Amino acid sequence: MAEEKVKNIEAKSKDIEVKKGGAVAKPTPSRALSPFEEMDRLFERFFTRPWARSFMSEWPSLAEGGAFFDRKLPRVDVIDRDDEVVVRVEVPGVDKKDLDVSVTDNTVSISGITSREEKEERGDYYRSEISHGSFSRVVALPSDVNSDKARAKFRDGLVELTLPKIEKSKRKKIAID
After folding, report:
1. What's the CATH number where 97 sits?
2. What would the DSSP string read from start to end of the chain?
3. Are 86 and 128 contained in the same domain?
4. Is the pTM of the predicted complex or chain greater than 0.85?
5. Domain presence at residue 173
6. Using one digit for the tens of pLDDT, what is the confidence trace for 126-141?
7. How far apart are CA 1 and CA 126, in angstroms?
8. In this structure, is the dihedral angle defined by the CA atoms of residues 70, 71, 74 and 80, taken in order, positive or negative?
9. Shared-domain flag, residues 110 and 41
């Protein structure tokens, strides 16, 4: 009996579950939570108190609000080819005149201004929403490029940069032992 209590105490201190008969089961790993999920959990724990339940229905979930932050930075694809690097940047809803793209030997910087205006009128009902914002993103390139010979195209909210490499990358097959 005393030996079983010692096993239980040791197992609890190591977060290990002791099953009947003295068998020990290892804990299953859980996935890491994103910062938004952790904050959402913290707020849910805080607002489950009886005095705060009335406020809980008024607040949006932080997991839903995470989409807001995704929209601030444009999504980028970097494709490393033998003689060039291609960078594709998604900037939906942004005009060509509101974009600024600059290239150095090993980075690409893209910034822009977003604006949206929406109006709706139905009888006595009137709604107007105006939003303005800006974004900026710097992307490291996999190799040095010749910024003087860089080319850029903009079509349907997609910027495509073609950047010739200074030295072509030489691929070499390596034997595996």
Report:
1. 2.60.40.790
2. -HHHHHHHHHHHHTT-EEPGGG-EEPPPP-PPPPHHHHHHHHHHHHHTSGGGHHHHTTSPPHHHHHHHHHHHS--EEEEE-SSEEEEEEE-TT--GGGEEEEE-SSEEEEEEEEEEEEEEEETTEEEEEEEEEEEEEEEE-SS-B-GGG-EEEEETTEEEEEEEBSSPPPP------
3. yes
4. no
5. no
6. 888 888 888 889 999 9
7. 76
8. positive
9. no
